[in-house]
Amino acid sequence: MKYLTRSVKYFVSLCLLTAAIAAALLATGTAAGSTADLWRLLLFTPRGWFLIGALVLLSAVYPRAGYTTVGIEGDAERHRQQIDAAFRSMGFLPAGEKDGVRFFRAESFVRRLRLRFDDRISLSQNGRRIELEGPRKVVARMEYTLKSAIRQDNE
């Protein structure tokens, strides 16, 4: 269900981006016709169908490509303060804990909006590794920050 929700959110985002581009073209007078012409082009021509298909395909692939799980050597309980400080420095606040999994959410509304309100990062202990799961770009940055914080704590 999470995959479908992410796909729908991304599809809506892509549609809004496409509409904004079309509106900009119409507003600047660089569009090849009127609003009705653009709708006709979108709905009744192979070019329009291709655009819709591309939006659907990108939306279907994005959740797999845009979200990831990474592991970091360390102990989540031992490094709890460093983890919390690292998340705070990246603009994320604790959002709860359930069954040994901690959740963090973006602090600012603007950041949450940029992440399409899919800003939750989960942190769990898996053996000797701390696992992070969430949006790829955020998790990659957080992985680097946490590795540095844990390395400093170990020294």
Mean pLDDT: 85
Most strands sheet: 5 strands, antiparallel
Structural class designation: alpha+beta
Strand order of the largest sheet: 1-5-4-3-2
Helix-strand string: HHHEHEEHEEH
Quick one: overall form? elongated
Distance between the termini: 43 Å
Write the layout of secondary structure elements.
Layout: H1 2-28, H2 35-44, H3 46-66, E1 67-73, H4 80-89, E2 92-98, E3 101-106, H5 109-114, E4 121-126, E5 129-135, H6 136-154
Antiparallel strand pairs: 1-5, 2-3, 3-4, 4-5
Provide an overview of this structure:
This protein has 155 residues and is α+β, with helices and mostly antiparallel strands. 60% of the residues lie in helices and 21% in strands. The protein is built from six helices and five strands, in the order αααβαββαββα. It has a five-stranded antiparallel beta sheet. A hairpin with a 2-residue loop joins strand 2 (92-98) and strand 3 (101-106). Helix 1 (2-28) crosses helix 3 and helix 2 (35-44) packs across helix 3 (46-66). The radius of gyration is 21 Å and the shape is elongated. The termini are far apart. The relative contact order is 0.14.
